[in-house]
Design a protein that fits this description.
The protein is an alpha+beta fold and about 650 residues long. The chain contains 8 helices and 34 strands. One of its GO terms (cellular component) is extracellular region.
């Protein structure tokens, strides 16, 4: 009996003994052990991993007391070129989450793969049974204000600034007309949300929740029109941020510049529970280029839903705001709500027809981080029906120069008699077209799309029935939508009928031009709508109403004067214009019939054409001439082949 008991004890301790044998010689170190600020890089080095496997991995933990399975991200050791030697290193940037980090190395075997635990892409999440080593803690030297971003308030002489601190103590914004003339000071209001405010998992579960810090909100007032202001945030006791600057808006200006997109998300250097969006880096890069080219002209950014794609993993909100800060601290950053900020099973407005539309896309956040981390103009809100605070920033409008911008919510009630419907109707009917000849309406889920997205059909039908008549009656210039992660521009539309094909001419009607601009960064996307009689064949006819479809990531650039509004689609792979439409104040569409490039529009904003560009154009004309000659020869040959009985039917690619 004693021998049997000893054997049982031995086998029960065997995993622990094996773990000790694996980890006894494994070491892990950090360089540096204190990062100066959020976004700085750390290098982790390890050695002594015996019989290294491709499944061995290192987890990233914050706070350091997190359970093994509650990492914020991970790398495989095989990401290091020298991993097979049992040693290696990885270098990557980290965001300050207001608590320290640690790093843990684990051995993960094939036998430990748990198919029930997987990430957003159905990849199994790594196992944590065999800990090999744990690092010292990594901290941050700077603990002042971070994640700074601006917003308009609806008052021409104001600018809102928001940011985070770790302690919520009294904090201020200093501002003025020069970096050495920040002689005006405004106090900030402070708010935050708690884990109990979240509505579902993972947002209210320990795997997704992290302390969000304290949200500060201040308004710089009495700003002079069209002037560059400098500002910084913080306090003498808690430390001050770096100095930022922005251009105040001029309500009398005859020009408006905006950068608009949807569904951008954020990029992380590590793997995590959900898919992140590497293309968001390029979107911000090219917009930053355009803002620099503007010089001392004001502009704004419009991000129409699916903002961070945190989906209940709160550190992704921190990552997002750190990523946009270089841009959002210079120009106001405006948003509207999308399904990935809001939708959860018990959301209060969920008609019977909408069960295929509204699901669990918000990861249990129920609009709380979105509603508190941003503060948009107006006072729209809807109760959540739970302990959570009411959802804010649902619908609002403001004027910038010659454009009236309207933001709506496709996730909450927009049907007749609702507060949102009444707002949209009254707002559109009261626009002063002498002051703002152009009206741009923006929402997340599209009213028109040729994507094969069937689940939203009930919603689109009701938008077409109830909202489209308001847009047509009030001669809305542009209707911009996200949700579909591609670019698609339609002809001026009313009830699926084109007012014109965007080629000028006398026969036209001033219907809204609908454009889907959800190509900001998220990469998942269903196919275009196939032929009804051959749904299994990858041929996707482009209806006449759809003038341009593109699959490239990017953003749109809006430039408007009193006479004309120009919307350009800028692609991320080259930063050049791939489509453009021009609309007069009368509503007439001058061009934009579906060509894949816009004349001269491929230059960054503010860049003048050089002599070299003319040489390039000349060479291009020669190449084009040779190509046309080739095509004519090919057509001639094709006709001869057809005459000989060699019939064929060409298929047009929808991207051309």
């Amino acid at each position: 009996m004693i021998r049997l008991t000893s054997l049982l004890l031995f086998f029960s301790l065997l995993p622990l003994l094996l773990n000790l044998s694996f980890s006894s010689h494994v070491s892990i170190s950090l360089s540096p052990e204190t990062l100066c600020k959020s976004g700085d890089q750390v290098t982790i080095r390890w050695s002594g991993v015996e019989s290294p496997s491709k499944r061995d991995w290192v987890g990233i933990y914050s706070p350091p007391t997190s359970a093994h399975s509650h990492f914020i991200g991970y790398f495989f050791l095989s990401d290091s070129p020298e991993w097979q030697s049992g040693s290696g290193s990885l270098t990557f940037a980290l965001i300050n989450l207001r608590s320290n980090y640690t790093f843990r190395i684990f051995r993960w075997t094939d036998a430990e793969v748990d198919p029930s635990r997987h990430d957003h892409d159905q990849n199994p999440l790594p196992g944590t049974k065999q800990l090999l080593a744990e690092s010292n803690e990594l901290g941050f030297g700077y603990v002042g204000p971070e994640q700074v971003h601006l917003a308009l308030t609806g008052q021409e002489d104001e600018m809102r600034v928001m940011y985070l601190t770790h302690d919520g103590k009294e904090s201020f914004v200093k501002y003025g007309l020069g970096p050495d003339q920040m002689d005006r000071v405004v106090a900030t209001q402070v708010g935050r949300y708690e884990r109990e405010d979240m509505c579902d998992s993972p947002a209210n579960h320990s795997v997704g929740w992290r302390d969000p810090g304290y949200i500060h909100d201040g308004i710089m007032t009495n700003l002079k029109k069209g002037k560059r202001y400098y500002y910084k945030a913080g306090s003498d006791s808690g430390g001050w941020s770096v100095t930022y600057s922005f251009m105040s808006h001029d309500g009398d200006s005859d020009e408006t510049v905006a950068f608009l997109f949807g569904d951008m998300g954020t990029a992380t250097p590590y793997n995590t529970f959900v898919r992140t969006q590497p293309e968001s880096i390029s979107t911000m890069k090219w917009i930053s280029r355009d803002i620099e080219a503007l010089g001392d002209k004001p502009a704004l950014i419009s991000h129409i839903g699916d903002i961070s794609y945190a989906r209940g993993y709160s550190w992704l909100w921190d990552n997002f705001f750190a990523q946009i800060e270089p841009v959002a601290s210079k120009v106001p950053y405006h948003v509207c709500i999308g399904n990935h900020e809001y939708d959860w099973p018990l959301q209060p407005w969920k008609p019977e027809w909408s069960y295929s539309v509204y699901g669990t896309d918000g990861g249990g956040e129920c609009g709380v981080p979105y509603g508190l981390r941003f503060n948009m103009p107006g006072s729209s809100s809807e109760p959540t029906g739970t302990h959570a605070p009411a959802t804010r920033n649902l619908y609002y409008s403001f004027d910038v120069g010659v454009v009236h911008f309207v933001y709506i919510s496709t996730e909450t009630n927009f049907l007749p008699e609702s507060s949102q419907y009444n707002f949209i109707k009254n707002d559109l009917e009261s626009v002063d077209r002498a002051k703002t000849p152009f009206v741009v309406v923006q929402g997340h889920r599209p009213m028109y799309t040729t994507s094969n997205e069937l689940r939203d059909a009930p919603l689109r039908n009701r938008m077409l029935k109830h909202l489209e008549p308001l847009l047509v009656k009030n001669k809305v210039t542009l209707a911009l939508w996200g949700h579909v992660h591609r670019y698609e521009r339609f002809c001026p539309l009313s009830n699926f009928t084109c007012g014109s094909l965007g080629l000028g001419g006398e026969d036209w009607k001033a219907f809204p031009v609908h454009v889907v601009i959800g190509m900001g960064g998220q990469d998942w996307q269903p196919i275009w709508e196939p032929r009804p009689d051959h749904p299994d064949v990858p041929i996707f006819p482009q209806p006449l109403r759809s003038l341009y479809r593109g699959g490239e990531f990017g953003y749109t650039r809006l430039v408007a004067s009193k006479e004309k509004l120009t919307l350009s689609y800028v692609g991320n792979h080259d930063g050049e214009v791939h489509d453009m439409v021009e609309i007069l104040a009368s509503g007439q569409v001058l061009n934009g019939g579906g060509s894949s490039s816009a004349g001269g529009g491929s230059k960054p904003m503010g860049e003048k054409e050089s002599r070299l560009s003319w040489f390039v154009k000349g060479a291009a004309i020669l190449v084009l001439g040779a190509f046309i000659g080739y095509v004519l020869g090919f057509v001639s040959r094709a006709r001869r082949d057809t005459a000989a009985g060699k019939n064929w039917t060409p298929v047009k690619n929808e991207e051309i």
